[in-house]
Structures are given as C-alpha cells and as structure tokens.
Amino acid sequence: MLLSAASRLILLSALFLVQLIQLAAATKGAVMLDSLTIDKVVGKFGSSLIKFDVQYPYGEKHDEFVVIAKTLKNSLDLLVAEVGVQDYGENENKDVIDRFGIKKEDFPVLALFKGSTDKPIYFPASEDFKADRIKSFVRQHTGIRIMLDNCLEKFDILAEEFTRTDSKADQEKLVDEARKAAEGLENENEKKSADVYVKLMQKVLERGAKFIESESERVKNLLAGKLSEAKKAELNIRVNILQSFSHPSSTEGGDSKQEL
C-alpha cells in the first residue's frame, strides 16, 4: 500500500529522530552524567572533561568531541563525559547547566573539572572547536601527556626537557640530540615534524624563551587570514608542535564565565 505524503513525512521524521538517538549513544569513551551522578563520578578522577549539550547532539562539533573521547581512552586519570539537556517535557538536566551558569544558546560547552565540580575551567568560545585544540586545552591545564596530530613522542619529551632547563649548555645538548634523532627517521612526514622541533629549539637558543609565545601568536594570526588548505595544514602542524614547548598552566580557572 502506498503511503500518503503526510505519512511519509511522519516516517522520515521518526527515522531522523532514531538516527539522532543512535548518534547520541555512539559516543564511545564518554560517560553520560546527570544531576545525580556528576558530583559523585567527577570526584573519582583527577580531571574530567565534560561536554554540556542538547540531549541528542549531532554536527561537526559533536564529531570533534567523538574524536576526543576515542583519543583519550587510555588516559586513565581523565574522565570524558557528557551531560545531555532536554529542551522539552521535564527539561532533564537543566538544573545542571543552571548550576554552572551555562546557557543553551552556547551549546556545546566544554568544561574541565580538576578533582571536583568546583571551579570549572571552560574551553574558550573564541577557540575553534577542533579535537587538537581541545587536546591542547586539556594538556595545558592538567599536564597530562596527550599526543597531538603530527607530534612525535620522543621529540615531545625533548621539547619539554628543553623548555624546563635554563642552562644554555643543556639546551644545546638537547638540540644536538633532537637533530641526531631526526636524522635517523625514515618516514617523510615524521622527518618534516622533527625538523620543526629542531628549528624551534634553535630559534629559542637565538632569541630566548619568549620566542615560543611570539611564534604561537604569529602563527595564530596567520591562520586567521585567507590561506590555501596546504598552508593551513602546514601551520596547524606548527601550532601542535609549539604546544610541546609550553609548560602546563597552573591556572585553577576560578573566574571562568568570561571565557564562555
């Protein structure tokens, strides 16, 4: 029997709703929290990254969060979670966002909690809601080692050692170690990344520690302009590697409303 136009529309709407529900349930690596569980669960972890969003999220930003949940699956002291808020019926979990001063029009909102639900640190609304930017945010505020795209673990360790020492002699030794390690690489993409690490170290030796901050700002400004996709990809690699030279922040995130 042929369906009427109205019946087909109802069927399509129902199928679309089912797909949304499936998408919401498909965030592997993330725990669903509500007003009764958020304090209890967050208190068990050193750090918790929580996304506040509509009950059945979808779209590019949710896709980036899915990537984050999978990427951080091995970070045992870091919880990745979601709070889904109903905008109909009983408005489930609206009391949670009211508690933290979060508005629905700002969804999705990412908040980082350190050991408790006190003093959340919000992912800045001004930042691109991209997996690597979120990983950098978590790394900055927790010190948890998270590998960013195109970064190399050995060189990340060398970069951290390089940044933590004030001895120019020690820094020169680390540059030599990085250069030798780069020469031993065979993969072309890894060679390109290693070359960036070495060049950044050399620039710090020439110009001082403030070079990393000024270079980060310079690259950020370039990315805000009109660039080819190839140039953007190249600069994004540089952005990620620059993070390896940054100390984790000691900020606890008290006055975080201004970041929303």
Any descriptors?
260 residues; alpha/beta; Glutaredoxin; Endoplasmic reticulum protein erp29; 2 domains; 5-stranded mixed β-sheet; 10 helices; disordered C terminus
How would you sum up this structure, described in words?
With 260 residues, the chain is α/β, with parallel strands linked by helices. The chain folds into 2 domains: 14-142, Glutaredoxin (3-Layer(aba) Sandwich), CATH 3.40.30; 153-243, Endoplasmic reticulum resident protein 29, C-terminal domain (Endoplasmic reticulum protein erp29, Up-down Bundle). Helices cover 52% and strands 10% of the residues. The chain has a 5-stranded mixed sheet with strand order 1-3-2-4-5, with helices on both faces. Helix 3 (60-71) links the parallel strand 2 and strand 3. Helix 3 (60-71) packs across helix 5 (131-142), helix 6 (153-164) runs antiparallel to helix 7 and helix 7 (168-183) runs antiparallel to helix 8 (188-207). The longest helix has 21 residues, at 5-25. The N and C termini lie far apart (53 Å). The model is unreliable at 17-24 and 249-260 (pLDDT under 50).
